[in-house]
Design brief:
By secondary structure, the chain is of the alpha/beta class. Helix content is 28%, strand content 17%.
Length: 702
């Protein structure tokens, strides 16, 4: 069994030593909060938001305010572990660091001698840090010549679509939403996923702004907006085209801004005129009056801002939909105002501010071009070696900052792949997650309270620094320290493998973009960006114009879901309910699922159903149900409420599989097909049926 952290501080006598350490939230959230961490006698007693950091303004979400509970969790893995049971059983014995590292290095050397591309690193945003994310790890795998990973699982469809429109992942400053007069909150539930943006939206609301939520689910955010437009999943592009139609016929196009700063408008205008409100409404499952009113409000209210988020791009046509929504503020000239425009991601503003090459050292590839495998199709990659899509068999996977067995689509296939006895799997982790249960070796990693790191953001424009507040607990080591030690055992002698975590963090940013003195003194520093960055065009495209007709992509269009009545009528007849799987309020992807207080708040896996759909199936509120399709079956409790629109069920995620009611989670039902742009997963493009537990499982042939 793993060594664990003690959750009880030893009794002390005499005066306490108390000090505060400046940190940064590491999680996959746009807010990237600045933290103030209180340490008493070597133990963290409080994690709070920095009141001086403008986006954070002293507030934290419930999850991160309990970060100490996670770091001192009694089930924390604090010594290396070696598998003694079958893969997936989670049976391990503790071993020393030398034995663990020697075992890993020996196996990796043998595989690399045959083909280094048979080794796959698998990571994402368990930490967003530049050091503990892909700093030393990238150096290690570049030197090794391992396969590259296409990190697509969250945002690549929207990110690439945004770049195909604006030239980069850029947008408004989040603070200026407080001055907007109309805010469209599109595909986002900021009360759960971006509490600091929600604070600025509330400031605007108190000053008289109108808030409109566009989302299939009646979220906590939708309940607090003036209007909720509950469109069908995957129809956002159709709604955007309907709004464009209304802007054109209503005379709300800023002709001067479009003529000077938008490339390809005539073609897009012609396309939008083919989408009158009635057509858009029929596709979206809303009324034509809702489409007309939205276009009128957006065209006549200034400044108007859009907070777009990634939920709406997790469908077949997600990339095209993002392009269409991102063009709306260009058509109306909303970018003229600092409180107008759009924010999906601000990460592109940091592109020139980081020392990426010196952090990740792509030169260590020495001219090699390893294959790239898509993390969103890891199930197929592990189970179908030798196919043209994947190439040679993956013989080893090194997982860090991710939990693919829980979070990757079509998880039954992912489990089957990780259960291969011939697959050597190493997992760097804090806990025995679903993925760690399948590891041959588990290495105990530090949490954010225990290591150095540097952070950018994708919801604001501040660089941040994280200092360790306490020494690593037990035998935990930082990700960078682990890859540094492995490099030594692999015989890598380049000086970059000896660079410390602190040195990497302190050298992560360029002085011409970030005030390094302020960063060191305060823990954060704002990038030098104009308040209204596109008031006079100047988009980061080659010609400075926003692209309606993007090179290589053409004009954007509504693209139907893979799984819907329009594209797959026979499938929709068998599985008539569309399922989306938004995050549960107290979890962040699969992080925090094992924190007792947060799991208690969520209680159990839930499927929200509209009363009409529940009544038609004889399902009562609180009943245990089977959600199923041709890919698998998932058990959870039914929550019958108006949060779900008719014909759509909401499977709240992402629970660890082993904490589910039947050993699965909602990703048992999702598939591995990819988006139109960005090669991303289509989690919210999924048809299912629901029945009470105990009824025979119905297997349908294609």
């Amino acid at each position: 069994m793993p060594a664990t952290a003690t959750a009880t501080a030893e009794a002390t006598s005499g005066p306490k030593s108390i000090h505060t350490v400046q940190g940064a939230c590491p999680h996959d959230c746009p807010d990237t909060c600045a933290l103030r961490i209180t340490v008493e006698d070597g133990r963290v007693t409080r994690v709070a938001g920095d009141p001086e950091h403008p986006p954070t303004h002293g507030a934290l979400c419930t999850k991160v305010s309990r970060y100490a509970e996670r770091s001192y969790h009694p089930e924390r893995v604090l010594t290396p572990l070696k598998r003694v049971g079958k893969k997936g059983e989670g049976r391990f014995e503790p071993v020393g660091w030398d034995e663990a590292l020697d075992t890993i290095a020996t196996r990796l050397k043998a595989i690399a001698a045959r083909d280094p591309e048979a080794i796959l690193p698998y990571s994402y945003a368990g930490t967003m840090g530049l050091v503990q994310g892909d700093g030393m790890a990238a150096r290690f795998f570049h030197k090794l010549g391992a396969s590259l990973l296409d990190r697509t699982i969250c945002s690549s469809a929207g990110g690439e679509a945004l770049a195909a429109t604006y030239g980069g992942k850029v947008g408004m400053h989040v603070e200026f939403f407080a001055e907007s007069r109309l805010i469209l909150i599109w595909g986002s539930n900021p009360i759960t996923s971006s509490v600091h943006f929600w604070n600025f939206a509330q400031q605007a609301k108190r000053a008289g702004a109108k808030l409109v939520c566009i989302d299939p689910r009646r979220t906590e955010t939708a309940e607090k907006c003036h209007q909720h437009i509950a469109l069908r999943p995957g129809t956002d592009g159709a709604l955007a085209l309907g709004v464009m139609h209304g802007l054109i016929v209503g005379g709300h196009v800023d002709d001067d801004y479009v003529a000077r700063h938008v490339e390809g408008w005539p073609g897009l205008r012609e396309r939008a005129l083919q989408w009158p409100p009635e057509r858009a409404a029929a596709v979206c499952g809303i009324t034509a009056d809702e489409v007309r009113a939205l276009a009128r409000d957006y065209g006549t209210t200034k400044p108007a801002a859009i907070r777009l988020n990634y939920g709406m791009q997790r469908v077949h046509g997600g990339g095209n939909a993002v392009r269409l929504v991102a063009l709306l503020p260009c058509i109306t000239g909303a970018w003229r105002h600092r409180a107008g425009g759009l924010l999906l991601s601000s990460s592109g503003w940091f592109k020139g501010a980081r020392h990426d090459a010196s952090l990740q050292r792509p030169d260590l590839l020495a001219g090699r071009t390893p294959r790239t495998l898509n993390m969103s199709t890891i199930g197929d990659a592990l189970n179908h070696p030798g196919s043209p899509a994947f190439g040679p068999r993956v013989e080893a996977v090194v997982v860090y900052n991710s939990n693919p067995v829980a979070v990757a689509p079509h998880s039954g296939e992912v489990v089957r792949g990780f259960a291969r006895e011939d697959l050597f799997t190493v997992v760097l982790e804090h806990f025995l997650t679903d993925t760690a249960d399948h590891a041959d070796v588990v290495l105990p990693a530090t949490t954010q309270l225990e290591h150095w790191d540097a952070h950018t953001a994708y919801g604001h424009t501040y660089a941040l620094l994280n200092r360790p507040a306490i020494e690593p607990l037990g035998g935990a080591r930082s990700n960078a320290a682990i890859f540094r030690a492995l490099a030594v055992r692999m015989g890598y002698t380049e000086p970059c493998f000896a660079q410390s975590d602190e040195a990497m963090a302190m050298s992560a940013f360029k002085a011409e973009h970030v005030d390094l003195d302020e960063l060191a003194a305060r823990g954060w520093s704002k990038l030098r960006i104009a308040d209204a960055p596109f008031a006079d065009g100047g988009f980061p495209t080659p010609g400075g114009k926003a692209w309606a007709d993007a090179p290589g992509l053409g004009l954007p269009e509504h693209v139907a879901n893979y799984e819907c009545a329009e594209a797959a009528p026979e499938l929709a007849a068998r599985y008539p309910l569309a399922m989306i799987s938004p995050p549960a309020r107290h979890f962040l992807n699969s992080s925090f699922v094992n924190v007792a207080s947060l799991r208690a708040a969520e209680r159990e896996p839930l499927l929200e159903m509209h009363p009409a759909d529940a009544i038609a199936r004889g399902i009562a509120d609180g009943a245990e149900v089977r959600v199923f399709n041709d890919r698998g079956e998932y058990h959870c409790k039914a929550a019958v409420s108006q949060r779900a629109r008719p014909g759509v069920v909401n499977g709240l995620g992402i629970w660890w599989r082993k904490l589910g009611l039947n050993g699965t989670n909602v990703n048992e039902l999702t598939h591995q097909r990819l988006t139109d742009i960005g090669r991303a997963p289509t989690f919210y493009d999924c048809l299912v049926e629901v029945a009470g537990v105990g009824e025979p499982f119905r297997v349908h042939a294609d």
